[in-house]
């Protein structure tokens, strides 16, 4: 069992932009008045293509698919929210809070994922959207997975429901570690991967966003499972997406910690030194438009593809 993979999927956007449906629970989004919708899309596309090129330059296998024109899916550049793959051969699809995001679960994409990963089982959790009172679990946005120790870390929120989380854990043999974490205005942080990242031997986490009653539980679980905790601050989390990182590897087996340029520039020398000790490469990518208008960062743009062992 490995924490990281050298193969990822990224979705090239055709209609990226501010999504008012998603903004109701994502305080990180901004509606940009100084840009036309066309300019927002054009800049995001340049950021996306640069990110793909930089990842490939470091030896990561990046599979890309293009969103259909006029699909009405402004958040499609963030595919990690609606599916995940697992080395035991499962493909999991998730219930999404925004109706527009449910259209991202296209059969063409699913078929390509199944072929790339040799998935033998499709675990469908999207039926939770159709309940009388819909509840949600938005993939590896809602959960940060310690794949080696089979732990799903989850900050409960309107998009991260404990019952759906338990269903995921029961199906895939994970243990849930839940907690509350708060945004700048005191709201529940909408996605766990905004405030923490788990790598093979470390965890980047904004412990000061976590409810005091849950903080020690989270710290203990991480350290007991062999992770060196690299603390980041509320300000780095809220203003610079510093928690939204992902460790991947390249074809040579080198570990790469991927983050946005904004996140990188917010780090202290000590934090960066700690991260460098666990990774052969630190890759930081300029995605300012995607972060501002979309309310997500580079981790959200990367869907890991774990091939069945």
UniProtKB/TrEMBL annotation:
Gene3D superfamilies: L-arginine/glycine Amidinotransferase, Chain A
Matches recorded under NCBIfam families: citrull_CtlX
Full protein name: Amidinotransferase
């Amino acid at each position: 069992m490995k924490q990281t993979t050298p193969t990822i999927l990224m979705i090239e956007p055709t209609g990226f932009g501010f999504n008012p449906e998603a903004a109701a629970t994502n305080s990180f989004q901004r509606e940009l008045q100084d840009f036309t919708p066309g300019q927002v899309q054009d800049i995001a596309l340049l950021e996306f293509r640069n990110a793909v090129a930089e990842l490939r330059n470091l030896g990561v296998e990046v599979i890309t698919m293009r969103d259909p024109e006029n699909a009405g899916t402004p958040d499609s550049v963030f595919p990690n929210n609606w599916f995940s793959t697992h080395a035991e051969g499962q493909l999991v699809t998730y219930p999404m809070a925004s109706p527009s995001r449910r259209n991202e679960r296209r059969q063409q994409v699913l078929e390509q994922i199944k072929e790339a990963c040799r998935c033998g089982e499709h675990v469908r959790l999207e039926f939770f959207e159709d309940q009388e009172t819909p509840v949600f679990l938005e993939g590896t946005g809602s959960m940060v997975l310690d794949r080696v120790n089979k732990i799903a870390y989850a900050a409960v929120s309107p998009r991260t429901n404990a019952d759906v989380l338990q269903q995921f854990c029961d199906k895939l043999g994970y243990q849930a570690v839940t907690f509350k974490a708060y945004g700048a205005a005191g709201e529940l942080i909408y996605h766990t991967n905004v405030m923490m990242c788990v790598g093979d031997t470390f965890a980047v986490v904004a412990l000061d966003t976590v409810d005091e009653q849950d903080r020690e539980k989270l710290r203990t679980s991480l350290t007991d499972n062999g992770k060196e905790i690299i603390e980041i601050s509320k300000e780095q989390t809220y203003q610079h997406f510093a928690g939204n990182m992902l460790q991947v590897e390249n074809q040579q087996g080198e570990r790469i910690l991927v983050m946005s340029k904004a996140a990188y520039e917010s780090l202290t020398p000590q934090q960066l030194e700690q991260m460098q000790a666990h990774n052969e490469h630190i890759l930081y990518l300029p995605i300012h438009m995607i972060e501002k208008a979309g309310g997500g960062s580079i981790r959200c743009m990367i869907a890991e593809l774990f091939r069945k062992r």
